[in-house]
Amino acid sequence: MTAEIGSPAPQFTLRDQDRNEVSLADFRGRKTLVVFIPFPFSRICQSELCAVRDNLHSLNSADANVVVIACDTIFVHKKWAEIEGFEFPILSDFWPHGATASAYGVFNEDLGVAKRSTFVLDEDGVVRSVVATDSLGQAREFTDYPQALASI
Q1: Cβ–Cβ < 8 Å for 127, 118
Q2: Residues 47, 139 contacting (CB under 8 angstroms)
Q3: Contact by Cβ (8 Å): 36, 104
Q4: Mean per-residue pLDDT of the chain
Q5: Annotated catalytic residue: which of 33, 45, 74, 120?
Q6: d(CA 143, CA 67)
Q7: What value does the mean pLDDT take over residues 2-28?
Q8: How far apart are the first and last CA of the chain?
Q9: What is the C-alpha separation between 33 and 122, in angstroms, rounded?
Q10: Is 71 a known active-site residue?
Q11: Is the pLDDT of residue 112 over 90?
Q12: Is residue 34 within 8 Å of 72, Cβ to Cβ?
């Protein structure tokens, strides 16, 4: 099953950069952005997540959680979060490799990474919007997030 607008988002339990288990169910009761990224430390992923970090207050004002998922190890995510000051969970979809990205329909099998896609969920975990790009080389616009959250 892939994540489709109007359907419940696929459930997951993954480890964050601090080795804590994090489940989608942990975010029930608030809107949630499930942000898939392909390459931590890359220029585009860096700019996207720094925009989220720098505007986290506006997302919190919209009563929204942010959770990032990438197919790298928790060790990569830990270092990246420390360097950049990311205070939201960055979850490892490393093993089984890309299983969560596959469940959402955003796993790039050729490269072994998640596609650049964000699922905007309502308080009940239902997908209400998807913010994505057609290319790994094209960033998502941060302004799309507050707009998508406001439409819920």
Answers
A1: no
A2: yes
A3: yes
A4: 96
A5: 45
A6: 17
A7: 97
A8: 23
A9: 9
A10: no
A11: yes
A12: no
